[in-house]
Amino acid sequence: MAKSKIKRRGILLVLSSPSGAGKTTITRALVARDRKLKMSVSVTTRPRRPREINGRHYHFVTREKFDAMVAAGELLEHALVFGNCYGTPRGPVMRALGAGNDIISDVDWQGTQQLAANVRDDLVSVFILPPSLGALKRRLQTRAQDSREVVLARMAKSADEMSHWAEYDYVIVNEDIEDSVRQVRAILEAERIRRERQPGLAAFVNRLRGER
Protein backbone atom coordinates (compact mmCIF):
# COMPACT_ATOMS: atom_id res chain seq x y z
CA MET A 1 0.00 0.00 0.00
CA ALA A 2 1.40 3.40 -0.96
CA LYS A 3 2.32 5.71 1.86
CA SER A 4 -0.08 8.63 2.28
CA LYS A 5 1.48 11.98 1.45
CA ILE A 6 0.24 14.71 3.76
CA LYS A 7 1.28 18.27 3.02
CA ARG A 8 3.66 19.56 5.70
CA ARG A 9 5.28 22.91 6.38
CA GLY A 10 9.02 22.88 6.95
CA ILE A 11 10.83 23.49 10.22
CA LEU A 12 13.53 26.03 10.98
CA LEU A 13 15.71 24.14 13.45
CA VAL A 14 18.14 26.40 15.31
CA LEU A 15 21.06 25.27 17.45
CA SER A 16 22.86 27.71 19.75
CA SER A 17 25.68 27.33 22.24
CA PRO A 18 28.73 29.09 23.60
CA SER A 19 31.64 28.91 21.16
CA GLY A 20 33.22 25.49 21.41
CA ALA A 21 30.26 23.69 22.99
CA GLY A 22 29.56 21.69 19.84
CA LYS A 23 26.71 23.28 17.88
CA THR A 24 28.60 23.35 14.57
CA THR A 25 29.76 19.73 14.88
CA ILE A 26 26.24 18.57 15.75
CA THR A 27 24.75 20.63 12.92
CA ARG A 28 27.09 19.10 10.33
CA ALA A 29 26.38 15.58 11.59
CA LEU A 30 22.63 16.14 11.35
CA VAL A 31 22.85 17.43 7.77
CA ALA A 32 25.09 14.51 6.76
CA ARG A 33 22.62 11.94 8.13
CA ASP A 34 19.28 13.46 7.18
CA ARG A 35 18.61 14.09 3.49
CA LYS A 36 15.48 16.08 4.35
CA LEU A 37 17.51 18.63 6.32
CA LYS A 38 19.38 21.44 4.59
CA MET A 39 21.82 23.96 6.02
CA SER A 40 20.93 27.63 6.01
CA VAL A 41 23.76 29.59 4.44
CA SER A 42 24.30 32.80 6.41
CA VAL A 43 25.78 36.05 5.20
CA THR A 44 28.77 37.39 7.10
CA THR A 45 31.32 40.17 7.00
CA ARG A 46 34.08 38.13 8.60
CA PRO A 47 37.08 37.12 6.48
CA ARG A 48 36.90 33.80 4.68
CA ARG A 49 38.94 31.06 6.34
CA PRO A 50 41.07 28.53 4.44
CA ARG A 51 38.94 25.85 2.70
CA GLU A 52 35.72 27.84 3.13
CA ILE A 53 33.71 28.23 -0.08
CA ASN A 54 31.68 31.36 -0.73
CA GLY A 55 28.02 30.43 -1.10
CA ARG A 56 28.45 27.05 0.54
CA HIS A 57 29.75 27.79 4.03
CA TYR A 58 28.77 31.47 4.10
CA HIS A 59 27.93 34.28 1.75
CA PHE A 60 30.88 36.59 2.38
CA VAL A 61 29.90 40.23 1.89
CA THR A 62 31.22 43.68 2.68
CA ARG A 63 29.89 45.65 5.63
CA GLU A 64 28.24 48.05 3.17
CA LYS A 65 26.39 45.20 1.45
CA PHE A 66 25.37 43.71 4.79
CA ASP A 67 23.96 47.03 6.02
CA ALA A 68 22.00 47.39 2.77
CA MET A 69 20.45 43.93 3.26
CA VAL A 70 19.42 44.86 6.81
CA ALA A 71 17.85 48.11 5.61
CA ALA A 72 15.93 46.28 2.87
CA GLY A 73 14.53 43.70 5.30
CA GLU A 74 16.31 40.86 3.52
CA LEU A 75 17.51 39.19 6.74
CA LEU A 76 15.39 37.22 9.21
CA GLU A 77 17.97 37.90 11.89
CA HIS A 78 21.33 39.58 12.17
CA ALA A 79 23.90 40.14 14.88
CA LEU A 80 27.34 41.55 15.59
CA VAL A 81 29.56 38.83 17.06
CA PHE A 82 33.21 39.47 17.98
CA GLY A 83 33.38 42.38 15.57
CA ASN A 84 31.81 40.58 12.60
CA CYS A 85 28.24 40.69 11.28
CA TYR A 86 26.16 37.56 10.65
CA GLY A 87 22.64 37.19 9.26
CA THR A 88 20.09 34.73 7.88
CA PRO A 89 18.70 35.53 4.38
CA ARG A 90 14.91 35.72 4.44
CA GLY A 91 14.04 34.62 0.90
CA PRO A 92 15.70 31.17 0.68
CA VAL A 93 14.50 30.14 4.15
CA MET A 94 10.87 31.13 3.64
CA ARG A 95 10.72 29.46 0.23
CA ALA A 96 12.12 26.24 1.68
CA LEU A 97 9.69 26.19 4.61
CA GLY A 98 6.74 26.84 2.33
CA ALA A 99 7.79 23.90 0.15
CA GLY A 100 7.87 21.59 3.18
CA ASN A 101 11.66 21.47 3.48
CA ASP A 102 13.48 21.62 6.80
CA ILE A 103 16.29 24.12 7.41
CA ILE A 104 18.93 24.03 10.15
CA SER A 105 20.99 26.97 11.34
CA ASP A 106 23.54 27.48 14.12
CA VAL A 107 23.03 31.05 15.32
CA ASP A 108 23.60 32.70 18.70
CA TRP A 109 20.97 33.75 21.22
CA GLN A 110 20.62 37.20 19.67
CA GLY A 111 19.75 35.70 16.32
CA THR A 112 17.37 33.20 17.91
CA GLN A 113 15.46 36.00 19.64
CA GLN A 114 14.95 37.73 16.30
CA LEU A 115 13.88 34.50 14.61
CA ALA A 116 11.37 33.91 17.40
CA ALA A 117 9.93 37.37 16.71
CA ASN A 118 9.78 36.82 12.94
CA VAL A 119 8.96 33.13 12.40
CA ARG A 120 8.00 31.70 15.80
CA ASP A 121 5.54 29.12 14.43
CA ASP A 122 8.24 27.65 12.18
CA LEU A 123 11.03 27.75 14.76
CA VAL A 124 12.36 24.89 16.88
CA SER A 125 15.25 26.04 19.08
CA VAL A 126 17.84 23.90 20.88
CA PHE A 127 20.53 25.20 23.24
CA ILE A 128 23.72 23.15 23.61
CA LEU A 129 25.55 23.34 26.94
CA PRO A 130 29.10 22.07 27.60
CA PRO A 131 29.53 19.53 30.42
CA SER A 132 31.93 21.94 32.18
CA LEU A 133 33.84 25.16 31.60
CA GLY A 134 37.06 23.16 31.58
CA ALA A 135 35.78 21.03 28.71
CA LEU A 136 34.69 24.18 26.87
CA LYS A 137 38.14 25.74 27.17
CA ARG A 138 39.87 22.55 26.00
CA ARG A 139 37.64 22.38 22.92
CA LEU A 140 38.39 25.99 22.03
CA GLN A 141 42.12 25.45 22.44
CA THR A 142 42.21 22.24 20.38
CA ARG A 143 40.31 23.80 17.45
CA ALA A 144 43.51 25.72 16.64
CA GLN A 145 41.66 28.24 14.47
CA ASP A 146 41.66 31.16 16.92
CA SER A 147 44.40 33.07 18.69
CA ARG A 148 44.88 32.88 22.46
CA GLU A 149 43.28 36.31 22.80
CA VAL A 150 40.19 35.21 20.88
CA VAL A 151 39.90 32.03 22.97
CA LEU A 152 40.00 34.10 26.16
CA ALA A 153 37.39 36.49 24.76
CA ARG A 154 35.09 33.60 23.87
CA MET A 155 35.48 32.10 27.33
CA ALA A 156 34.70 35.45 28.96
CA LYS A 157 31.50 35.72 26.91
CA SER A 158 30.34 32.14 27.51
CA ALA A 159 28.68 32.87 30.87
CA ASP A 160 26.46 35.53 29.31
CA GLU A 161 25.61 33.26 26.38
CA MET A 162 24.66 30.38 28.68
CA SER A 163 22.35 32.64 30.69
CA HIS A 164 19.89 32.53 27.78
CA TRP A 165 19.29 28.77 27.98
CA ALA A 166 15.73 29.19 29.31
CA GLU A 167 14.64 31.00 26.13
CA TYR A 168 14.98 27.77 24.10
CA ASP A 169 12.50 24.98 23.43
CA TYR A 170 15.04 22.28 24.29
CA VAL A 171 18.36 22.12 26.16
CA ILE A 172 21.03 19.43 25.71
CA VAL A 173 24.25 18.94 27.69
CA ASN A 174 26.84 17.86 25.11
CA GLU A 175 28.88 15.28 26.99
CA ASP A 176 29.10 13.02 23.95
CA ILE A 177 28.63 14.15 20.34
CA GLU A 178 26.88 10.96 19.20
CA ASP A 179 24.39 11.09 22.07
CA SER A 180 23.73 14.76 21.39
CA VAL A 181 23.14 14.12 17.69
CA ARG A 182 20.67 11.34 18.54
CA GLN A 183 18.81 13.64 20.91
CA VAL A 184 18.48 16.42 18.35
CA ARG A 185 17.34 13.94 15.70
CA ALA A 186 14.64 12.71 18.09
CA ILE A 187 13.50 16.31 18.63
CA LEU A 188 13.38 16.90 14.88
CA GLU A 189 11.36 13.77 14.16
CA ALA A 190 8.81 14.65 16.86
CA GLU A 191 8.48 18.25 15.69
CA ARG A 192 7.93 17.16 12.09
CA ILE A 193 4.67 15.43 12.98
CA ARG A 194 3.18 18.13 15.19
CA ARG A 195 -0.43 18.63 14.17
CA GLU A 196 -0.07 22.34 13.45
CA ARG A 197 2.83 21.67 11.04
CA GLN A 198 0.67 19.47 8.82
CA PRO A 199 -1.74 21.80 6.98
CA GLY A 200 -2.74 18.90 4.74
CA LEU A 201 -3.95 16.81 7.68
CA ALA A 202 -7.53 18.11 7.68
CA ALA A 203 -8.01 17.24 4.02
CA PHE A 204 -6.50 13.79 4.59
CA VAL A 205 -8.84 13.06 7.51
CA ASN A 206 -11.83 14.28 5.51
CA ARG A 207 -10.92 11.86 2.74
CA LEU A 208 -10.67 9.02 5.24
CA ARG A 209 -14.07 9.87 6.67
CA GLY A 210 -15.57 9.90 3.20
CA GLU A 211 -14.26 6.47 2.27
CA ARG A 212 -16.73 3.62 2.14
Question: Can you walk through the features of this model?
Answer:
- The two termini are 17 Å apart.
- This protein has helices at 23-33, 63-71, 90-98, 109-119, 133-143, 148-162, 177-192, 201-210; strands spanning 12-16, 37-39, 43-44, 59-60, 75-81, 84-89, 102-105, 123-129, 170-173.
- It has a five-stranded parallel β-sheet with strand order 2-7-1-8-9, sandwiched between helices.
- The protein is built from eight helices and nine strands.
- The longest helix has 16 residues, at 177-192.
- It has a domain at 12-40 and 102-210: P-loop containing nucleotide triphosphate hydrolases (Rossmann fold, 3-Layer(aba) Sandwich), CATH 3.40.50.300.
- With 212 residues, the chain is of the alpha/beta class.
- 43% of the residues lie in helices and 19% in strands.
How are the SSEs ordered, and which strands pair?
Elements: E1 12-16, H1 23-33, E2 37-39, E3 43-44, E4 59-60, H2 63-71, E5 75-81, E6 84-89, H3 90-98, E7 102-105, H4 109-119, E8 123-129, H5 133-143, H6 148-162, E9 170-173, H7 177-192, H8 201-210
Parallel strand pairs: 1-7, 1-8, 2-7, 3-4, 8-9
Antiparallel strand pairs: 3-6, 5-6
Give the termini distance in whole angstroms.
Answer: 17 Å
In CATH, the architecture of the domain at 12-40 and 102-210 is 3-Layer(aba) Sandwich
Residue stretches low in confidence (pLDDT < 50, at least 5 long) are none
Biggest sheet strand line-up: 2-7-1-8-9
Question: What proportion of the residues form beta strands (DSSP E)?
Answer: 15-25%
Give the overall shape.
globular
- CATH homolog superfamily of the domain at 12-40 and 102-210: P-loop containing nucleotide triphosphate hydrolases
Q: Let me know the average pLDDT.
A: 89
Number of strands: 9
Q: Helix content range of the residues, please?
A: 40-55%
Structural class computed from helices and strand pairing = alpha/beta
